[in-house]
Design a protein that fits this description.
Layout lengths: L1 H19 L3 H17 L1 H8 L5 H14 L4 H12 L6 H15 L2 E8 L5 H15 L2 E8 L7 E5 L2 E4 L2 H15 L1
Parallel strand pairs: 1-2
Antiparallel strand pairs: 1-3, 3-4
């Protein structure tokens, strides 16, 4: 829990600077790229977080990565600060928190639609439009197929859950029949 709070603080700090400098999108790309490197290449995370390596080596690695990504001075300083404060391990969480803040600033929500069979583009678009009307935000949908819901769809955007699955309807019918006995 403490790590998540720290990650959000760092993300909030760099996000506010990114907005001031009109570089919020650019910073997001840098953080996403570093997060991907950090999680897919264990040698990168080891080079930045292993206590056996001297701080100078860790700083040099981060500076080299920042230079290769051609980040601006502010982002470079931010990344070096993470290494100096021994917070480089938070990079993936910082990137996730930053993305959430950027989406919130752009009025974008992420949603999931679960259906018994794959939805065609037309139906997916219709569901997306309905969810956008209900939430008042632009919705980016992810679809999943789950045959156990039998039919219908389950849509979730943030706290809003719309369950129109046959499985849920059958469960409700079963409960109402039991209640009458």
């Amino acid at each position: 829990m403490k790590q998540t709070i720290l990650a959000k603080r760092y993300a909030k700090a760099i996000f506010s600077i990114g907005q001031e400098n009109k570089a919020a999108e650019e910073y997001n790309e840098v953080l996403k790229g570093l997060s991907a490197l950090f999680t897919t290449h264990p040698e990168v995370s080891d080079a930045l977080t292993n206590p056996l390596y001297p701080m100078e080596v860790k700083e040099k690695v981060m500076s080299g990565m920042a230079a290769s990504m051609e980040v601006d001075e502010v982002m470079g300083n931010f990344l070096r600060l993470l290494v100096q404060k021994k917070r480089a391990v938070l990079l993936p969480e910082i990137a996730d928190s930053y993305q959430e803040m950027l989406d919130e600033a752009k009025n974008i929500s992420h949603g999931v639609v679960i259906s018994a069979i794959a939805l065609n583009k037309t139906l997916q678009s219709s569901v997306q439009k309905v969810l956008e009307k209900l939430t008042g935000k632009k919705v980016e949908l992810t679809t999943r197929v789950d045959p156990t819901i039998i039919g219908g769809i389950v849509a979730q955007v943030g706290d809003l859950v719309l369950d129109g699955s046959i499985k849920t309807q059958l469960a409700g019918l079963k409960d109402s029949i039991k209640g009458r006995e």
